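Open question from group meeting: does this chain pack into something compact, or does most of it stay loose? Before anyone orders reagents, we agreed to write out a predicted structure and look at it together. Recording both the input and the output here so the notebook holds the full record.
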Amino acid sequence: MRAALVVLGAYVCLLGAVLHRQTWRAADVSWPWGLVVVLALTLLVTLAAGGFSRVGGAWFALGWALVLLALQWSPDGSYLVASDWLGLTFTGGGLGAIVLGISIHPRLAR
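Structure tokens returned:
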């Protein structure tokens, strides 16, 4: 179960790295719908992972963080997560969504 949660976290992070740059243009304004979807998906999956095991959210977070670190430590840098406001919001917002999901659904006391 733990390995499956780590793989799920890695998959969600990789999917988010590809999807977070998608925008919708209306009234000369770009709306980052991909970023909103990725952050909501990360929060929901973290909450669901907490239901599978006592520290399921932490195992999910491990897989998510490993992929994020692997993207940043690649020899040529990351081509998926840029150092602009979308990339930094994806990184910080994703980690924040995971922390929020783990703190909303604490199971350590049970």
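Observations to bring back to the group:
The helical segments are 2-19, 33-52, 56-72, 85-104.
The two ends are 19 Å apart (CA to CA).
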